[in-house]
Every structure is written in C-alpha cells, then in structure tokens.
C-alpha cells in the first residue's frame, strides 16, 4: 500500500518534470499538443534535448518533419535564429538491431561495440555524426553537422521555413545528366577523400535544394576497411544508375564507374 502511494507520487513528479521540459522546448500551451509530444519522448531523450537548450545549441523545437520507424526529424531554431534539423533516434526493433550490428562491427572506429539497446542507439547516432563530419570535411555536399549527444543529432536544415527540400525522387529534373554527374562526383569524393561508402544511396536519400543534390542519411555509411564496403558501393552505384537511366541519362557503365571511383582510372 505504502509502496503504491510512493510509486504514484514518483510518477506524478516525473510527469510534472517532463511537462516542464516539453513546455520549455516546444513552447506548447495546449494540453492535446503536450500529450502528443509526451508520448514521443522518453525521459532520457527529453533530458538530452533540455541539455542542448541549456547549452544554447537549440533555442526552440517546432513540429516533426518526418517520422520514420527508427528516427524522427524535427525542425528547430538555433540561438541565432538559424534553421536546424534535429534527428532523434528512438527505440529499435530486434531486426533493426541485428542490421545495425553488421555495420558497426566491421568499423574500426568503433572498437568497443555496445550491446545494450540504448547504448547501441547512442553509438548509431554518433556514427552518423562522424560520417557526416568526415563527408563534410571532404567537401561532399551533405547537411553540415552541428553536434550529437546520446540519441540526438543536430545538423543544418536543408530547406526553408521548416519545409524540407524535396527528395530527388520527388522533383522533376530539367537536366538529370548534370545532377547525375554531381552525385557520382560526390560518391567519389566520399570514397577517396573521406574513405567512406554511403551504403544506402538512392533517390530516397538524396535531397535536392537550389539546383544541388545533397546526400543524407549517413548512419549506415562504412569506412573502406569494412569487409562489406565493396558490396555496398556496388549496390549504391547500381541504385543510382537505375534511377538516372530511367530519366534518360546515358549513365556510365557500373564497372567503369566502380573503377573510376576506387582507382581513379
Ligand atoms: N538536414 C535535413 N534537413 C531537412 N530535412 C531533412 C534533413 N535530413 C533529413 N531530412 C528529412 O527527413 C527524412 C528522414 O531522414 P533520414 O536521415 O533519411 O532518416 P531515415 O532513417 O528515417 O530514412 C528525409 O527523407 C528528409 O525528408
Ligand atoms: Mg532515409
């Protein structure tokens, strides 16, 4: 009985705390809005976001842009009013966990692989951040990474006023051959300068903004040392060629493309 009361009390406290944080972050007033948000976030995620607010990384979070199965994307503002994209990794399915392990285990940058669910999700977020940083540093067109903490990654917002730029598959390209060239050049730069293979490249993970293609979703990108990097690269190239061939582009033969990217011939 006593314990019951205690639990109830604790739960009340937790809810009040969560509500306070959600109000600070999202500036919500209406309780329906609050309840919808409260359902999305667990306490550790709220604390992580709150920490970012306190450290002036973000100043306010607005609505969700996209809600995937494993992650959700939010539009936020930085301290100088700049638009930011906040990618939050949430829970993972057993199937996704198995998939993740394959990408992390062959990656020498992660010598200690975390096995617990939460730890693995944190590692996954930091992996995407590192990949973005390395890609950005190599001059590949990707959203500029800002910071990562636990399961929350903050990066440049591609788009305007909270409206994300369209994906490549959603735009009608006037000159697809030009875009094809830019994308394969970026894949080459990613390989030769950053030493990475995207691993999930397709018209679904390329945004198109102001006439330029941006590679996104680099969580599963692997370094060249990864035992599967060759297989992933070939699959990426096949995906790109399939998409651009359909648009009437005279694509470069996959084998030639592969050689040009890997050996520079
Ligand atoms: N930096 C960004 N700025 C604006 N929108 C973004 C950004 N990154 C991703 N998005 C949007 O969010 C969606 C999901 O992001 P993505 O990284 O591909 O995650 P997922 O793992 O769910 O595929 C993208 O299809 C795109 O529409
Ligand atoms: Mg994606």
Structural class: alpha+beta
Overall mean pLDDT stands at 91
CATH superfamily of the domain at 89-142 and 161-265: Transferase(Phosphotransferase) domain 1
Could you tell me the strand content as a percent range? 15-25%
Figure out the total of helices.
Answer: 8
CATH topology of the domain at 89-142 and 161-265: Transferase(Phosphotransferase), domain 1
Oligomer: single chain
Distinct small molecules bound, one entry per kind? adenosine-5'-diphosphate, magnesium ion
Q: How would you describe the shape?
A: globular
Q: Specify the CATH class of the domain at 89-142 and 161-265.
A: Mainly Alpha
Computed over alpha carbons, the radius of gyration is: 21 Å
What characterizes the major β-sheet?
Answer: 5 strands, antiparallel
- Tell me which CATH architecture of the domain at 89-142 and 161-265 applies here: Orthogonal Bundle
Provide the succession of SSEs: HHHEEEHHEEEEHEEEEHH
User: How many extended strands?
Assistant: 11
Low-confidence regions = none
Please list the strands of the largest sheet in the order they lie side by side.
Answer: 1-2-3-5-4
- How far apart the termini lie comes to 76 Å
- Roughly how much helix do the residues carry, as a percent range? 40-55%
